Amino acid sequence: MLKLEILEEAFPLAQSFNISRGSKTEAKVIHVIANQDGFSGHGECVPYARYGETCETVRQQIEALPDQFSRGELQSIIPAGAARNAVDCALWDLEAKQTGQPVWQLAGLEEPKPLTTAYTLSLNEPDEMLLEAQKNAHRPLLKIKLGTTQDIPRLEAVRNGAPKSTIIVDANEGWELDTFLSIQDDLKRLEIAMIEQPLPENGDEELIDQHFQIPLCADESAHTSKGLEELASKYAFVNIKLDKTGGLTHALVMKQRAEELG
Description:
The protein has 262 residues and is of the alpha/beta class.
């Protein structure tokens, strides 16, 4: 018998996390524990307000699951989203403990190796972003939250504060096409390596047939493997997040399909 426990947890952030859509000072997390035959698997998710998710709606989805199901069956029982992610990851962890094999082996993947990850600087006034960039100038990769009509002074401040770091930008759907086109030369001058989700999800068809100097990455526009073919005409990369794909199971499917599309 599979038994699911659901815990709600909140973790204060070290500092306010600001993007073009708003700010938050804590992370509200749903923690799922999958218990079976004396083993316990853990998974968690962060409900995404951008898609109408709350801790309550995620809890309700999980509580509505049947008494018994497999990880494969889960993919069709509950839609992609935070709730499925927490349960899916808990089932991966449960299987790993039951079999004594790490998840990467169960998934048929290569053994994980160290990777460079991006450290995020929140959207703020230029002088504040300069200070944050200076404090983190030792980091090889910085991700800068933007998405306003006055972003170049912010980006110049970050570049001055971290002259040797590789910089990628995340506009979080905050720009209009005219704004984005008007700052192309500045983005190139400041040696920006990638732009994530420059336009709103429901308006990114304007990216088709445009020629940008810097590669684009889809985030809010990329949820699951469905629709990747269309995204390939707009973006060079996709940001695969487990809370959007509904867990590791479909994230691996999405990754494979994205690589096939090149």
